[in-house]
Amino acid sequence: MAHLSPMPALEPGQDRTMILNMGPHHPSTHGVLRLILEIDGENIVRIMPDIGYLHTGIEKTCEAKFYQQVVPLTDRIDYLCPLTNNLCYVLAVEKLLGLEIPPKAQWMRVMLNELTRINSHLVWLGTHALDIGAMTVFLYCFREREDILRLFEMVSGQRMMTSYFRIGGLALEPPMGFFERVRDFAKRFPSKVDEYENLLTGNPIWGMRTKGVARITAEDAVALGASGPTLRGSGVDFDLRRDMPYSSYEKFKFKVPVSPDGDVFARYACRVAEMRESIAIVQQAVDGMPDGPIKAVAPKVILPDREMMKTQMEALIYHFKIITEGFAVPAGEVYQAVESPRGEMGYYVVSDGTAKPYRVHMRAACLANLQALPSMCEGRLLADVVAAIGSIDIVLGEIDR
Amino acid sequence: MPFEPAITDLEQLKNHPAVAKLIAWNSSAVEGAKFDRDEMSIYVERSLIRDACILLRDDADCPFNFLADVTCVDWFPSEPRFEVVYHLLSIPKKERVRLKVRLDSGSPALDSVTLVWPAANYFEREVYDLFGVRFAGHPYLRRLLMPEDWEGYPLRKDYPVEGYR
Question: Is the complex ipTM higher than 0.95?
Answer without folding.
Answer: no
